[in-house]
User: Fold this.
Amino acid sequence: MQTTFGTGQPGRENTDLAFTDPLTGLGNHRRFFDKVDRLISDRADDPAPFTVGILDLDGFKPINDLFGHKAGDDILIQVAMRLRASMDSYSTVCRIGADEFAYLYPMVFSEEQAAEKSRMLIEILSAPYDVGERTARLSASVGCSLFYSGDETTEILINKAETALYHAKRSGRGRVVVYTREMEEAAKRVTRIEQALRRAVSAGEVEPHFQPIVDLNTRRTIGFETLARWTDRDLGTVPPSVFIPIAEERGIIGPLSQLVLRKATEAARNWPKDLFLSFNLSPSQLVDQNTGLHILAILDRTGFDPSRLEIEITETGLMTDPASAEKIVGDLRRVGIRVSLDDFGTGQSSLGRLREFHFDKLKIDRAFVSSILDDRPSEHIIRAILAMCEGLGMDVVAEGIEEEAQADRLVQFGCAGGQGYLFGKPADADATLGYLRDSYRGALHAKAI
Assistant:
């Protein structure tokens, strides 16, 4: 005998279960897609706008880790109750991921109204949650898209909302972003650049350029910083400020970095042995425990002396996963590679990191150097950094020097190293070798005199 549990329709319960999230009792992703599909069909003859939104809980994983999975489930149930209670009779909310919810507003016709109602949801979710005898707080990010045309499918609408959500989370927690056509064009351009960059890395077409680092007192070149440069056959020259973040976000930064380091060390091994090579590591590389192995394998392959390599990392990179970064830094320093803290003063790190990580060098960010001549706070900050580094036994390089007066002021303050357009712009391997020949020829001539 088949049990129908009072539905009067055999199998109805199984259908309901297939469309229901078992934890919260909300509809699941299948229910949500079905609801949007039906609404698009209903409005086929008269495509009046409606709104789709995707809401993602900010920082839910750390709370889950801190309070435990049972408490995390309790919070999700409370989130679902609040969202359900905020919906009017026309609207629908479903749970479509671990900490991701989607909602459908059939009667919200404008971007302004969509953003306003979404901000209301974020406010509702920001109130404290009961977790046993304790409380927890959450924020949420939201991406919305509006249906305007009968050509749009459910999948297109949700993809647009997810793109908007991505922009919301990039701009900080607790934000709402409504999808726009400009966003669509930007997303297409990023995809084009990503695909071209993958091909370029595979074909070995990204090149290292080198910018001189000098002794400020003698103006003698003591090393070079490696900078990635890429010119694509279709896109033309793509600035590193564009392609490096895309490489980070799309998981290309590891292969890209290895390619550039290999080419850079191949070029630099023929330089005078007293010159060092400086190379930047990205935040994502500081959470990959294979990073050190990749670097050592490249040095072994190219025959470049580890003691001539200097790795630069940023304060932001340290903060991503301090324990992982500390291990990688320790592994590199044990084989003689020096480690430098880049862009000091603009990140989120505490001064305690300087003691914990035992950096060999600190680089003063160009933001302070550019205003050293006319901004008293910048002058005092640079003086303080130099005094601190002297006490810690760290070398210092000031970045972004473009004027003689800036260099003179830094020498006056006791800064030993400098880098910037005043001493040379980034140049490719051949031009750098020519620069070195001219420099050393000049030095030998001066000695002869």
